[in-house]
Each structure stands twice: as C-alpha cells, then as structure tokens.
C-alpha cells in the first residue's frame, strides 16, 4: 500500500484550491445515520495544479458555472427543485482574480461530467481536456439533440479532449489503476469507479520530499464515508439508481481504498464537496493565488 518514495530532485506540484460555488446537500441523500433534515452547505471545489519544474498548469474540475441557468433544462430543473446553489465566484473568475488566464491553463482534467464539476468549459479555448473514456458516451448525442439529456453535447471540445483508456494503467498505493501523467512521478490520474462512468481522481506530490495531496472528486460526498463511520445512503427517490452512485459496490470499494490512503503518512485527502476543508481554509492562503500547505 506504500506510495513511491521521492527520487533525487523529485518533481512535484503546487496545488491551490479554487472558489467555484456552493451547493446545498441534504445529508440523508448521501450518508446513513444522517440527522433528519440536516443540509450541508458544501463547496464545489476546483483546483489549480502547477508543475514545479516544467511550468505546466492543470485545472482539476471547474465547479458550478455562474450562469447556471444556461445548463441543459433538465439540470436547471434539478437545481431549482432538489438543490440550491450559490456562486459568488466561479472557477474562471477565481483563476483570473489570482492572475492567470484560462488561455494559460494547459490541461483541464474533469473528474466526471456532472454539472457541479464541469463549470463552463467553453472559456478554455486552448486547453487540452482530460476525462475518463466512459465520458464519451454520456455526451452523445447530449443536449440539445436529446432535449432531456443532463450533459451538453459541446461539453468537451472536439479535437482537444483525451479520453483515457484505463485498461493498462499500473497500480499505485491502494489503487489498482493509475497513470503517471507527466512521467516523472509528480501527478497520477487515478481510475475511480463507482460514481459515474469515467470518474477519475488525482494523486499529486505536493513537495519534493514526500508530501502528497489526493483530490477525490465525488468518490465520497461526506467525510463520514471516508472514515467509514457511515455507509452510502440507499433508496433515495431523487436518484435514478437509488443512490448518488451508479455502481454502489464499486463506489464502496473505492472509498475503502481512500480510507487506506489516509493511513499513509503525509497524505492529505480533499473531497470535491469538502465542507470541513472549506470552512477551515476559505478566504485563506490555501486558495489561489496561494497554495495548499503540504504535510
């Protein structure tokens, strides 16, 4: 289960959180043993990763778009009837306010195609997009060809999107499939099955001497799941599959792998909807143009 030891002059990434909106999540939809009626006002976090030596920049997720009324109609209906959102500053504004243009972002890695992670992809006109291979089927034909689709057909730019085939990826730590993206041990794309087809996470070195940060996307929506204090809620009528994950068994297995990861020294795990992280760090130096301190 150990992670690779740092090499001499090890490459790593500076990692910054990005403000990208908030979403109101009823706890009973996500965890067993929830307090009835309790709603967590959670962030929809995005991140900027900057390679310390090759100067490449990568955005991981884009949160909620500020003009959320321009999502496909089925999503707008879901926002107005199931969730509430509050977007003071979206990922694009967060980047600009910190002094970086979307044209300066080399890669945009989308953990999965749910609306609260995709933001407004059209603003990134030069970036190469990175997604799990199964995302391709979600946007074909997509909205507006399919008026009921949750996914816009133009979500991922044609000719600038890499659809990962995880079949031959190598294991790292507790995870059976990972891609050493820059081929220098600085950033690994992790196959993270269960939540939505094509779901991926990122494991990145946060220091030259052995620190790591794991960006877990929607692998879990509450820390009680990662600590194994709660299980994934099942049987909620708001979800097509009865729970937030399309494959509950695969999602649970992946959560257990993340739990194992938390036992490794100097590894910090951050969820996309990490309310404790956000409460502790909002308006602070963990957000761009600052960076998340390494362990």
UniProtKB/TrEMBL annotation:
Limits of the Metallo-beta-lactamase domain: 43-273
Pfam families assigned: Lactamase_B
This protein's UniProt keywords: Hydrolase, Metal-binding, Zinc
GO molecular function: hydrolase activity; metal ion binding
Entry annotated with the keyword Hydrolase: yes
Cofactor(s) the protein needs: Zn(2+)
Keyword set includes Metal-binding: yes
UniProt similarity note: Belongs to the metallo-beta-lactamase superfamily.
Protein name: Metallo-beta-lactamase domain-containing protein
Source taxonomy: Eukaryota, Fungi, Dikarya, Basidiomycota, Agaricomycotina
């Amino acid at each position: 289960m150990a992670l690779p030891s740092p090499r001499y002059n090890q490459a790593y990434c500076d990692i910054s959180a990005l403000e990208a909106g908030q979403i109101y999540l009823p706890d009973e939809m996500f965890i067993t043993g929830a307090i009835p009626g309790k709603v967590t006002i959670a962030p929809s976090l995005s991140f900027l990763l900057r390679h310390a030596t090759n100067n490449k920049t990568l955005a991981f997720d884009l949160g909620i778009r500020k003009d959320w009324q321009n999502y496909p109609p089925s999503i707008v209906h879901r926002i107005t009837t199931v969730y509430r959102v509050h977007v003071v500053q979206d990922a694009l504004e967060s980047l600009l306010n910190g002094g970086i243009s979307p044209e300066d972002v080399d890669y945009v890695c989308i953990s999965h195609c749910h609306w609260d992670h995709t933001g407004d992809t059209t603003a990134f006109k030069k970036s190469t997009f990175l997604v799990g291979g199964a995302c391709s089927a979600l946007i074909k034909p997509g909205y507006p060809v399919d008026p009921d689709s949750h996914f816009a057909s133009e979500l991922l730019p044609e000719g600038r999107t890499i659809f990962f085939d995880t079949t031959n990826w190598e294991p790292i730590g507790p995870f059976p499939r990972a891609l050493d993206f820059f081929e220098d041990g600085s950033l690994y794309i992790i196959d993270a099955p269960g939540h939505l087809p094509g779901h991926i996470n990122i494991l990145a070195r946060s220091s030259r001497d052995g620190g790591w940060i794991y960006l877990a996307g929607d692998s879990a929506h509450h820390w009680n799941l990662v600590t194994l204090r709660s299980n994934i809620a099942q049987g909620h009528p708001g979800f097509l599959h009865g729970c937030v994950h399309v494959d509950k068994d695969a999602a649970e297995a992946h959560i257990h792998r993340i739990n194992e990861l938390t036992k490794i020294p100097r590894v910090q795990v951050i969820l996309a909807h990490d309310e404790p992280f956000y409460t502790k760090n909002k308006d602070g130096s963990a957000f761009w143009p600052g960076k998340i301190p390494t362990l």
